[in-house]
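SUBJECT: A protein chain and its fold
Encoding: whole-number codes for local backbone shapes
Chain under study, with its fold:
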Amino acid sequence: MPETNPPRSVPAVIQHPASSIQHPASSIQPPASSIQHPASSLQHPASSIHPMPVTVTDTRTPEQLRQHYDVERELADRLRRASKEQRRTLYSAVYDELFQRVPLHPQHTNKSSPERLAADVAEKMQIAAPFLKPDTVFLEVGPGDCEFAKTVAEKVARVLAIDVSDEITRKRTLPANLELVLSDGSSIPVPPGSVNVAYSNQLMEHLHPDDALDQLRGLHTALGPGGVYICITPSRLTGPHDISFAFDRQATGFHLKEYTVGDLAALFRQVGFSKVRIIFGGKGRFILLPTWTATVFEGLFSLLPHGLSKALSLKPPFRWLFGVRLAGFK
């Protein structure tokens, strides 16, 4: 476990690495990147707690941040030590406890306008749209409020939304071609080979590494020949991206593991993906690149002092190269 350091100076607003990505086949211009405090991106694995795409100024005192950190690290350690069987029910329990014990958690205090929510869906569509066809079966892991899944449903034959709870969606009207499928948080309970496009955003980092590998295997199995899994997760090089950003040099909160491009690409290949590509670009222009273009520079940046490496990683073109936005093809 990393050493806990005194709280660092917390800037009012911290920019999250850009996550609005688009396949080169798309000509849609992305909306302006949202600025997000890392602590506001906490999400229940594969659950209805979805990160809010809002501009957040964290006005909490150092003492309040410390209280949040202490509680979240305690609960995250409980998850890290738990057996696989225990984790099947523990994910929801520890997140519920976090929100009860941290009344000023951003999930309680940050609200997003309809305009912001619409912009978030539009950003996600820019990456997904080039892969979608009228006969596509689309699967999203961790759909949250299902607003993105509902938008995708307008473009495809069928949408499967994998979640651990129907608490949020129970009172929502869903289109006839969108089905909510309940899961234990790591399994993908759909027929093998039944999916064309799978998608997750800000999910992988919340899973125990063993569960993440199981989920990847399940997604690979769910995809048909030529299917693609689009995975977006914050980069370890620019982290940590949970509450431990103010205290530690690597994630010790509910981001149970943050990844580099090299880390995650290796897992994709381990479970059988035949081709893995980076979705690279910015300012409306994006291309698919082989992962070695990032891993070479990741190795070089690992030789730099931590502060310098992080600062450079947040600047274009490196933030576009290191941002963990992968497309894995079966």
Observations:
- Residues 62-81 form the longest helix (20 residues).
